[in-house]
């Protein structure tokens, strides 16, 4: 079942506000309280600073105009309410305009632990705190501009860069503990614990390797890439990423570190 049939995004009013039901607000409260306790010591400081700056509601789904006020003041970004699924082209267009897409529905209780489609908890709790950080915000903007100009084939490789940084990136400074900055991990209690455990493989960030690494969206990640600090995203943004995409296309993908997805799964 696709997100388009399973979840229905809410339409904001003229002021950008959404009237969520009490049940939906209760789901947010449960998700927030469950995951926020996992953040200290595991989430990177830039994320925790952003979470504090946003001051989002604990017991009600935050309203996007309230999030926008903080983001605009910090880095010039704002959110954009979108349906459950949007095209690659629309996604890149929004990022290139410093607008972060937020699907305006919240997951069901049955999918608390894992959700294939990004919901408002994933987007607001997982990603928006770091959009207050200049390096993260600049990298996201650059990524949108690159993707907007890329071909369909190039976008497939660029998706891996986003996946292993913005969604599932880890950070570890010298002599410091391993921490999380990827929103896909930060919004998932299970993956928060798993990513920092001894189960997955972790490798230092290498752009060409990242572009050649396959992934699946419906499993815990078998491999994560680690940057030294959040400011390293500025360095990645200065790399000749599209030249590396061409190299990755020529070299091909690494053998996947996971089983192929069956038709039944």
TrEMBL record:
E.C. code: 1.14.16.1
Signal peptide positions on this chain: none
Protein's recorded name: Phenylalanine-4-hydroxylase
Family assignment from sequence similarity: Belongs to the biopterin-dependent aromatic amino acid hydroxylase family.
Pfam families named in the record: Biopterin_H (PF00351)
Gene transcribed to yield this protein: phhA
Keywords: Iron, Metal-binding, Monooxygenase, Oxidoreductase, Phenylalanine catabolism
Biochemical pathway: Amino-acid degradation; L-phenylalanine degradation; acetoacetate and fumarate from L-phenylalanine: step 1/6
SUPFAM superfamilies: Aromatic aminoacid monoxygenases, catalytic and oligomerization domains
Top-level taxon of the source organism: Bacteria
Cofactor list: Fe(2+)
Domain Biopterin-dependent aromatic amino acid hydroxylase family profile: 1-265
NCBIfam families: Phe4hydrox_mono, PRK11913.1-2
